[in-house]
Amino acid sequence: MTLLAGKNAIVYGAAGRIGSAVAAAFAEEGATVFLAGRTLARLEEVAGRIRANGGAAETAEVDALDERAVDEHADAVAARGSLDVSFNLISHGDVQGTPLADMALADYERPVLTAVRTQFLTARAAARHMTKQGAGAILLFGGDGDPVREYPVGGLQVAFHALEAMRRQLAAELGPHGIRTVTLRTGGIPEVLPAAFPGRDAIEKSIVGKTMLGRAATLADVGAVAAFVASDRARTMTAATVNVSAGALVD
Predict the structure, then answer these.
(1) CB half-sphere exposure, 162, CA atoms < 13 A
(2) Global pTM?
(3) How far apart are CA 54 and CA 21, in angstroms?
(4) Among 59, 198, 226, 239, which residue is least crowded by beta carbons within 10 Å?
(5) What is the pLDDT of residues 56-79, one digit of tens each?
(6) First-to-last CA distance in the chain?
(7) Axis-axis angle for helices 17-28, 40-52 (nearest 10)
(8) Residues 211-231: what's their mean pLDDT?
(9) What is the DSSP letter of 138?
(10) DSSP 148
(11) Spatial distance between the Cα atoms of 105 and 50, rounded to a whole number of angstroms
């Protein structure tokens, strides 16, 4: 039996590299995947690939920073029977490569404000329905960690730390209602870097060099682990981070 048979899962930012990989993995494991994002054409491309592989996918233009849009979409999904999984993977608008001493305040604070706002909105929308069901999984991506020395990452790490604080509070408040909250951490996924990204080769070498297995996590790895964590096989996992870093991150 597939891991997510009969489940309804929302993936925000589903047109992105990580979001589309997670959505595909959820669909492969039997979930009906609701792809949410701001660009419908790109979402339809992802949905087309999922359907071509025998999966079930629906799309909706949703700005995950818009309170009303998030709530209405979650309500619509729940009206289909249930809202079982929520995974927010939208981009945070972070600026990387600029030293903090040279960075504009707006560029530094953008990923922090974006991450906190969108995760709060989507987690709250899901929790309202999952509480009634007595079950559900809210997944986060990133995790806190040590400062990055090799490359300036702006406010991104601050955003991840903020999300971890939120995840711990969500776990404490939602656990009694049967709702699990788990963060996936990777230590970096070279596949998501565009070929022309400044310093791409050096960044990839740094990511791989920190691993214990001599290879970095792939998008397929992240999707597979996310599907397991979202499933009832992981029903004892909450208030936790899942390390998908090939040993680059040591808890």
Answers:
(1) 18
(2) 0.95
(3) 15
(4) 198
(5) 999 999 999 999 999 999 999 999
(6) 32
(7) 30
(8) 97
(9) E
(10) P
(11) 40
